[in-house]
Amino acid sequence: MPDTRQAGAGESPGVLLYIRVSSEESGKRGYSSKDQQDRLLEEAERRRWKVLEVPYIDLGYSGGFLERPALDAMRDRVERRDVRYVIACYRDRWSRGEPADMWVLTEEMKGHGCSIRSLDFQGDIDTPEGELQAGILDGFARFEKRKIAERTRRGKKRKAKDGKIIASTFPDYGFRYNSTRDGYEVVPERIVVVRRILEMVAHRGWGLTRISKALAAEGTPSPTGKEFWSLPVLKKIIDCDCYRTYPAETLRPMLSNPHLVESGSRYGIWWFGKARHVSRRIRKVGDDGQLTYPNTVTKTPNPRNEWIAVPVPDCGIDPSLVDAARDVYHSHRKPSRQNAKRFWQLSGGILRCPHCGGAYGLGGHGRHFYYRCSTRAARGRDACSNSTHLKVSEIEARVWAFVSSLLSDPDVMERGIRAMIDSEKRVVKDPSSELKSLLKRRTKLEDGRTAVEDAYLEGIISGERTKARLARIDEDISTIEEKMRSIRERAKRVDALEAQGESLLDVYKRATPERLAALSPEQRHDIYTIIRLKVDVPMDAVMSARWLFGNVFPLDADLDSGLVSSKVGSICD
Ligand SMILES: [Zn+2]
């Protein structure tokens, strides 16, 4: 069917090409970015479509979510209304998740006079037949995705029950994988390190930071070969059951196959299924206002009775040492706040070390506190040569003088707050139109439900089939409702932010020097966070600051408040 709704006579319709390669597909034949591009260009030429831009390519992104940078850019581009088609090789390039995602895309594109196409689906989405066919393809893509996930999960579980370890990037420290990568072998020279770590905790009561420093000082690299051991890694060593051995008799009742352990021997435990990891992409606005697409993993712990124990070889560490280390570690933890009475308004990464880029933290003891480079404090003078100590009262006064001078200019503040709201809005794509299309979809599904019920009442289809169809429709309806709920939540958040921004602005418009001076340290800290203030504190004492706009201000410029009189104190340690 020739389509001439948009293109004028003799003018070729404009087309954009979309390519997606997920990480599992890389290297698979027909799925490489080049393969897809060749096929799309060929199709565009055959149909005499005019390719408007270079292809939009998402590499390493799953089709399970719509949060993808190239797809976003394409969605923005289509708003210019000169695009007649967007085309991908396969329909599952657009979406491999919920049918609602595909629906949102289709409706959004339609709203801009654009139609979604794919080489494996040539039907007209606007006809009932086309819609049915498309629906089948989408349903199949979703089924495939679930099947793959289910198969891997069940396969892993079976392996664990057979006493096999599911290999990840790194084995637990002190072990290596055997040749088939499904069991552990002890690495004695590393177990020595594990024992020493446990002894530092159990016998000397050392904290993790101190242990990390000690290991670095003697030149023992971390499990991933870094100079410093991270605190979570050390904590994991204290709690890891691979090092805590039990006699075979104790373990046996926990195992689905009692022959996995030999009487008279001891074994550590590697646990399978402690938590369920669900990864998804999200859209996020970074400190610099740039959109990024980090992969976030949500970890949901599983109930203890669902864990599967896999016995691992005895590492030779005395179990009473492991128990003692855990005891000391878990009973000695104290809150890290050094002085609860005072609020440190420049903590939390507002002051930056110009030398290493790290944050300034609080140092000192008794009544003498100062801000200093945290990197140097944690890792010593070789990690950062900045030995500056900043007097708390002086630096706080200087930063506040700078910020209050900004605050007393409502124009500057207004621009800042608007910029902040705009950057948050970019995360949420036009919620009302997404909602509208979802609502439409739900109405259609509800109509379908009525039609199925009518067909049953008229005796056209059997009770069994009616039940199955209704169940499927209900599942789709609840997916859509879930999606609508999350869109409404997001929109609500932006509204709240807008309201918050307006009231902030209101406060600043009425701000007088006296009122600003009356703000508490906590309120000041809040303001710093809101305007995303970062202050660079170089050693020669002329500071500069970055905030929401990314601008750099010399910190001593235009200060008439008289608060700043002295230079930054610099003491060598
Ligand atoms: Zn530093």
Task: Give unreliable regions as ranges.
Answer: 1-9, 333-340, 556-573
Q: List bound small molecules.
A: zinc ion
Largest sheet: 5 strands, parallel
Helix vs. strand class: alpha/beta
Can you give the mean pLDDT? 78
Count of discrete alpha- or pi-helical segments spanning 4 or more residues: 17
Helicity range = 40-55%
Approximate strand percentage: 15-25%
Number of domains: 4
Shape: globular
Radius of gyration from CA coordinates = 31 Å
The count of strands amounts to 21
Distance separating the two termini: 80 Å
What does it look like?
The chain has 573 residues and is of the alpha/beta class. It folds into 4 domains: 14-148, Resolvase, N-terminal catalytic domain (Rossmann fold, 3-Layer(aba) Sandwich); 175-332, no CATH class; 345-408 and 511-573, no CATH class; 420-509, Helix Hairpins (Orthogonal Bundle), CATH 1.10.287. 44% of the residues lie in helices and 15% in strands. It is built from 17 helices and 21 strands. The strands form 7 sheets. Strands 1, 2, 3, 4 and 5 form a 5-stranded parallel sheet that branches. A 4-stranded mixed sheet has the order 15-19-20-21, with no helix packed on it. It has a 3-stranded antiparallel sheet with strand order 8-9-14. It is globular, with a radius of gyration of 31 Å. It starts with 13 loop residues before the first strand and ends in a 19-residue tail after the last strand. The model is unreliable at 1-9, 333-340 and 556-573 (pLDDT under 50). It binds zinc ion (ZN).
